[in-house]
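Appendix B, Record 12. Input sequence as logged:
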Amino acid sequence: PPEHGQSRMVLLALETLRLHPASFDIHHVNARFSSTLEDIGDSSMGKMLLSVKYLTKTIWIRFRIKQPILYYVPGPVKWSSVLRDWMLLAVLRLFYSRVVFHWHAIGHGEWAHGSERLALDGPRWMDRMARKISARVLDAPFASITVSENSRKDSLAVASEKEFVISNGIEDPCPGFEEELLPKRQARQKEIAATAQPCFNILFLSHGTEEKGTLDALDCMIEVLEDSDPSWGFQLTFAGGISEAIRQRFDAAANTLTSRWPGRMRLIEEGYLEGSDKHRRFVANDIFLAPSRWESFGLTVAEAMAFGMQIVATGSDGVSGVLPPEHPYISPVANPPALAKSLLACCGNLRGSLAQEEANALRVRFLTHFQTSRFAENLVNALETLGAGLNRSESATGDRVASASHHPLQPVHVRVYLGDQNPKLGRSLGISRMTEVVLRELSEHGDLELSGIVSRSSIQMPAGTKSIVLPWKTKSRTLRVITDHLHPLLAPASPKPDLWYFPKGFLPRLHYFCQPSVVTIHDTIIQYYSDHYPTWRTETEYRYWASMLKHTLRNATSILTVSHSAKAQIVAFMSRHHIPPKQIDVTYEPCLYECFPQPDNPPKADYVLHLASREPHKRTEWLIREWVGAGKRGMQLPALHVIGSIPQAVESLAAQSDAIVRLPFLEDDALRSQFSTAKALILPSEIEGFGLPAIEAYYLGTPVCYTLGTSIEEVLTVATTHGGFHLDDPASFFAALEDVMRISPGEIHACGLKLRGTYAAQIVAEEMMKAFREARRRFLQAPDSADDLPSPETN
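Logged structural output:
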């Protein structure tokens, strides 16, 4: 107590577990810190003394029972709650090795691990220090219980060993809905549809705080009254009491509403409701308004669903986790104009014929997911699962022995790091496309279990695999570098993967937490740039990435690459930097477009295609200058479609030329269409690791012009010798272009089939599986000291 959503669910959990005495022995320390809703989150000396009292009781219980699980509800990101959690958990986790966190008040875990959505009051340095302490006391619990799929950020951030999503539940408040309330709802809808001057009854049911969106609701109504039909009226009921902290602002906004629209707006304010009074308000209103800015679980929204109401809400974590994903009346948080737009749409829909069907669908969703019986069943199953594992050995030695006896045909658990791959950022596009295809194929491999570490902005793991989703984006350089090196600490300690895979080819500095490791190094272009374009990046960047590549080559258990050309680059790099030779396996790259049938004779337009780049090794500037120059000399050429950013040096030249067609970055369907209808793809790169666009083009029925001596030549010559040219001989380029445009559709079709057979995703995945098993075998046969100690290069 006091009565609120969290206390109701904790009480229900206790009552549920006590109904199963054969499975659970419950010891409850009733940690009651507040007596009123306003008192929640406030600091006082009295609460500190209560913490000591509850701490003493919990430690005493620990010595009376065997192998206990400590169930604990972390508090919100407020100083009083954070200090309480520090005090209790710092001590209790010394006594209780198995702690289960039930994340009712969301935010503490993700804040502790860097989320910018929250911050403690006070100076930033104090907030940063507090995050570090919380990260330590919350680290790696035995299990976490989250209340919806949308509220998992805390569990993922603290690296829970196990995780359960258990939606909160309530008893059905309308057991006679079909017989009693549904006819009333249908009659009310007909009434609204038939009258020329409808009045829409709207209910806000929550404790009236700014966080619950109370003031946003009033601001929303101003927008609604300004934009709606003047014949419409509205009655808005605030039930649950208004916090004194916002009372003055609430009254001012309410007076504005009722004075500007006296005949159209009526406000009703009620205190805390329960029982029949609460039931009466749900029945009497048409629309439930849930504008909360921050919610772990929309319990009142679930109640409104049970009453068959229309619901207009903001997309806070908990509320959007309760409503169906396709719900039409969800708007961004703290955005009254967007909320007003949703509310107006809902009111308009109430005058139509499908409104009650939508509300009935929400009622069915409540019955399916959010009843106490479902909550109780899921909670009991989860905690029985945890209890069943208490007798299993968890020693490091036991883990090592179990791993060493890993049968060669048992599934291999591979953990993949993807936080360093952000779509459309930097040089990751081709690598990301390759990674997605490879992982999708590997996820269907029966001998493999995949899990991943991803960020909110990075590419994601394939459907059906598990992910640790870091609660931040890795687009910024600082967060990306920090995440690249510290992500091993964010992964759960159990279950341990059999190996780690880094598809972008860089090991973290904490590589000794990621053993054994397999990396795919795509090229050594960073060294090429340092040698040939030293001013393109800063000296610091060149040093950093070169050091990362050296670190990876020295410490990775197994090294893969994507072509023999790339392998030669890596060998030369290792020799140059005195890195001992290692085995390097070539797996090649699969193509995203292999899922499309090889076209026989696709229709062609009068243009050729180039994927532009400002990076000098792509030679976009060279191509544009040669193309424009050839046109001025009278050469008859098709148009050159250039997709993406071009070097500034040729911006004006391209703009003034009718032969150049500039196109922005394209989404995949549009890009595939450009590939398919082009007469040729031009790839004048100086250096590549593989050259994925070359086989993408042939898979879609388009031949390729490319620079001889690069990996593209190696990749394509398994099927064709057409299209090669020398960059220092422009005449050879135009001759190669003329050559490929004469290739018959039948020959292009045959080339595509040959390339598909060579670089099929299934073949690449099989080669990678061999590398995974070999890396695992080598690691298990290595001395323990080599496994456990960082190498000298770590520093």
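The first strand starts at residue 70 and ends at 72.
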